[in-house]
Design a protein that fits this description.
Layout (H helix, E strand, L loop, with lengths): L1 H6 L20 H7 L4 H5 L2 H15 L4 E2 L6 H5 L4 E4 L3 E4 L17 H4 L1 H13 L4 E6 L1 H10 L7 H9 L1 H25 L3 E5 L8 H19 L6 E4 L7 H6 L4 E3 L6 H8 L4 E6 L8 H15 L5 E5 L9 H14 L3
Parallel strand pairs: 1-4, 4-5, 5-6, 6-7, 7-8, 8-9
Antiparallel strand pairs: 2-3
This protein binds coproporphyrinogen III.
């Protein structure tokens, strides 16, 4: 299992590779099955969700599967009115703006609220011969959707609540962290062999904001997973200035986007953690030879790391040619032989 070995900084025969958003609109077989309904409906159907998880594993021969679900699934499951709009992302009719809104964040009971997701994991473990990654949205990234009511560029309302009413902010993050931890632990019990925390939008924060308003909740999640012995991956976009703090928050693997080289990321994270990344998903739209050169550069930058999991710096873009991703998987496997 070279993916799990790399996460644990153990020796590997080749560099493992998988892609964030490897299941998705860039695959014709995904579009054929997904249909037009909400992604939340697909996630609630274990046969469909298992099949969508397996498609990229079969096609590309990647070294890990990531559960087909979404970071907002646990929020929808506890009755926060949230939908995922195609081409836009998560949206709420009634965003969270004041203390009273926190009553809508009830504690999750994973065996009941996430029953279809846990069933999907059980189905997958019977089928897969590569490790299965479970995941959750981190408290800050989920809070940003709850407060903004949808995707945001500036996170103005989120930061306004954070700074203007810190007591409510911390209560909200604590409640999100509890649910996140419960969801991740339940995924591991059902069979997930690694867990990734997506704090996708943490790169919008200053170091001080991250340390004071976000890191305590994140730290509690990683501490609360430590007895499981399952590799914990911590990912965000635009987090170059936060990588040392993200490493301190307690994961085993830190995800790095394309803005920072893996060499620099290794310096910033203390050279004792595995790193995951960091080919620019936008470069994957270029001619295949260009993409291959960029992938080679990532492998070169990773030389000497204690552990490296090859990935993109963020998710696969929908317009990506699957043939290009196939070429990247093959190149990583062929050119990283130890
Ligand atoms: O293949 C995989 O990576 C596994 C499945 C997965 C999805 N979402 C499925 C999905 C994972 C790991 C996620 C995580 C997720 N969801 C994140 C964190 C990762 C990141 O990209 O930063 C975030 C921020 C979300 C919220 C979200 N859900 C967004 C921004 C969108 C895109 C909206 C769009 O249509 O462009 C979604 C929808 C979504 N989640 C899709 C998929 C495959 C695409 C639309 C669909 O098929 O319905």
């Amino acid at each position: 299992m070279r993916f799990l070995a790399a996460c644990r900084c153990q020796p590997v025969d080749r560099t493992p590779v998988w892609f964030m958003r490897q299941a998705g609109r860039s695959l014709p077989e995904y579009r054929a099955i997904r249909g037009d309904g909400s992604i939340l409906k697909a996630v609630a159907n274990p046969d469909v969700a298992a099949e969508l998880t397996l498609q990229p594993v079969r096609r590309y021969g990647v070294d890990a599967a990531i559960l087909f679900s979404d970071i907002v699934v646990p929020l929808a499951a506890i009755g926060v009115g949230i939908e995922v709009e195609p081409g836009r992302g998560p949206v709420l009719d009634q965003p969270f703006r004041r203390e009273a809104d926190l009553s809508r964040l009830r504690p999750i009971e994973p065996e009941l609220d996430l029953a279809p997701v846990l069933e999907t994991i059980r189905l997958l473990r019977a089928e897969l011969d590569v490790p299965l990654i479970g995941f959750a949205g981190a408290p800050f990234t989920l809070a940003s959707y709850l407060v903004e009511g949808g995707p945001s560029r500036t996170f103005g309302r989120t930061k306004s609540l954070m700074h203007g009413d810190p007591a409510t902010w911390h209560r909200m993050l604590d409640a999100l962290a509890e649910n996140c931890l419960a969801s991740l632990r339940a995924q591991a019990s059902a069979g997930a062999q690694a867990l990734q925390l997506f704090d996708s939008w943490a790169g919008s924060l200053s170091r001080r904001e991250y340390r004071d308003f976000v890191m305590p909740a994140t730290r509690r999640i990683f501490a609360g997973l430590s007895d499981l012995g399952v590799p914990r991956i911590h990912f965000g976009v635009g987090t170059g200035e936060l990588l040392d703090l993200m490493a301190e928050a307690g994961a085993d693997v830190v995800g790095v986007d394309w803005r920072v080289s893996l060499q620099d990321a290794a310096e910033r994270t203390g050279r004792h953690l595995a790193l995951q990344g960091n080919l620019d998903p936008a470069i994957c739209l270029a001619p295949v030879g260009v993409v291959e050169d960029a992938a080679r550069q990532v492998l070169k930058d990773a030389a000497g790391l204690p552990g490296h999991v090859f990935n993109l710096g963020h998710g696969v873009l929908p317009e990506t040619d699957p043939g290009v991703l196939q070429a990247v998987v093959d190149l990583v496997h062929e050119e990283s032989v130890r």
